[in-house]
Design a protein that fits this description.
This protein starts with 6 loop residues before the first helix and ends with a helix. By secondary structure, it is an all-alpha fold. The relative contact order is 0.12. The longest helix has about 40 residues. The protein has one domain. It contains 4 helices and no strands. α2 packs antiparallel against α3 and α3 crosses α4.
Amino acid sequence: MNPPKSVKERFFHSLVFEVLAIAICAPLGTWLLGYPLAHIGLLTLMISLVAMSWNMLFNAVFDRIERHRGTARTLAARVLHAVLFEIGLLLAVVPLAAWWLDIGLWEAFVLDIGIALFFLPYTFVFNWVYDHLRARLIARRLRRAPT
């Protein structure tokens, strides 16, 4: 089992996740919704800041529960992690998107469902790749450490 993530690492993890998400979502949102890139870009940034805060809090709690139970990140745990994260984010983002785009809550909810359908696999794949790269980096550092 790998050592727990520090606050600094959690911030790095969140930042990389969000920067990559913005780079994908802002142009895609502009193309799909027909709003100017600056308008969608700012909404994407606001959602990203909400998501980044939620990501750090949610992952800290999820990791703590995992450590307490002494379990590893199985496929089922990864799926549960991604689904619970997206549900929490959905509850925070719908009112923001409705206000920013001047649309109703239902329209914002439908839009956010579309966003969640993108982010479910994105979250799963990103965290899977991150965890594997982290484990390899930790193993490499342990091999290089003086005995």
